[in-house]
# Entry
Amino acid sequence: MYNHILVPIDGSQQSDRALDHAIKLSKHGYPNARITIIHVSPQIILNEPLMSVPLSDTLAEEGQKIVEPASAKLMENRVAFKSVTLTGDPSTTICQQADTDGHDLIVMGCRGVGLMSEILLGSVSHGVIKHANCPVLIIK
# Structure
């Protein structure tokens, strides 16, 4: 039985579908399950500022714009949840969060960019599948 579901979100249609699936799981299959939505902004290291606004502030604002609609959807569906926004390598940070908070399932989207792109660039979903210590459900 799943009690604590982690849903990484990035504002894509795939992550929206993953959130919808997690909501269905929590409402129909596992009614006591809590959901944590997580948005991870990639860590960007610069030697000089690009603009007058600190980049970390801009990334935090963008992350909040992604988290707000997901939070609204969870409230609308009356699902117990919390939201987390972090900075770092997305796949590593997602796996660390799952371990730290004791999540027993990760539900996430997959863009399906193709084997060659995944080999050359890697993918967050592939990294999570490879390194997570709990089951990972990929939603296409």
Notes: The radius of gyration is 15 Å. The longest strand covers residues 34-41. The longest helix spans residues 55-76. DSSP finds five helices and five strands in the chain.
